[in-house]
């Protein structure tokens, strides 16, 4: 198989001898990573693009595991509830010594911390999965830890408990509230990112671009530009090139939404009673429902219902339909060659739950720079 030199900026000590093959990093000098709560593998793909050898992963959802294995066949995947996985045994089976792993990445379930949860009662057991990061950190003592979640986590008591326990293990932290658009992702997606380095003396900059050692950020990518690129890259007979089937009245409602419009632009006969009731109470509720993606702006956040018009601004910019699964995946910056397994609803959920690939790549580079600067190479 042909090889090519990795074409992104990495710290000099990581560049030495590093070669990239399309399906795997092939030298022993590559930094290693373990991906917790791996989903369908969006973060794994981004970390691989940044130069990591993702040697292990943990995921519970069976369809997401099938998708993960399809795209990352050489990564050891534990398909299990993370609470039943022995972190010490996992490290041993991966052939890693304590303190040898470069990066432990984790993206625990975030729905309980999201503003989209509204007034629903939080699932305390799912929210407590955040603490599994500490258990795996103790077993591996990686050089770096990367946590990605919704900004609401920072307001939860578990966030303070997590960072305090990791600090006791010797990690220094920087935390960032970032929008994926700054990394060239054509989607508005606010996230909390925590970067920890195993050094009490590490001085982690509050500016992510200072860590990345780059003079400028990628250009803002709009949904229109992304869809135009996708049209040139579309695979023949791509199974993801399909949108959600709509019943007659929903199809008529979608057709009635003007370009750049929202549900507020619908004629009275197409307005939903539930929306009228919400509007009568004042405030702003369900404002994105039945909205069109704007061509001149980044797409909205891809959620677990990211191709369902009733659940957000997920109507195609000009065509009378919802987004296709491939369009949603492309807004998440998955390569067009990335495949997913499962029912339509399962694939939609896998896409919405993913870390945008380009975002994960840049964060991976930030990790490498931080580890190098801390002298942990």
TrEMBL record:
Keyword Transferase carried by entry: yes
Protein name: DNA (cytosine-5-)-methyltransferase
Active site: 110
Enzyme Commission number(s): 2.1.1.37
Lineage: Bacteria, Bacillati, Actinomycetota, Actinomycetes, Pseudonocardiales
InterPro entries for this protein: C5-Methyltransferase, C5_MeTfrase, C5_meth_CS, SAM-dependent_MTases_sf
EC primary class: transferase
One Gene Ontology MF term: DNA binding
One BP annotation, GO: methylation
Pfam families, per database record: DNA_methylase
Keyword field contains Methyltransferase: yes
Family: Belongs to the class I-like SAM-binding methyltransferase superfamily. C5-methyltransferase family.
Annotated PANTHER family: CYTOSINE-SPECIFIC METHYLTRANSFERASE (PTHR10629), DNA (CYTOSINE-5)-METHYLTRANSFERASE 1 (PTHR10629:SF52)
Keywords recorded for this protein, A-Z: Methyltransferase, Restriction system, S-adenosyl-L-methionine, Transferase
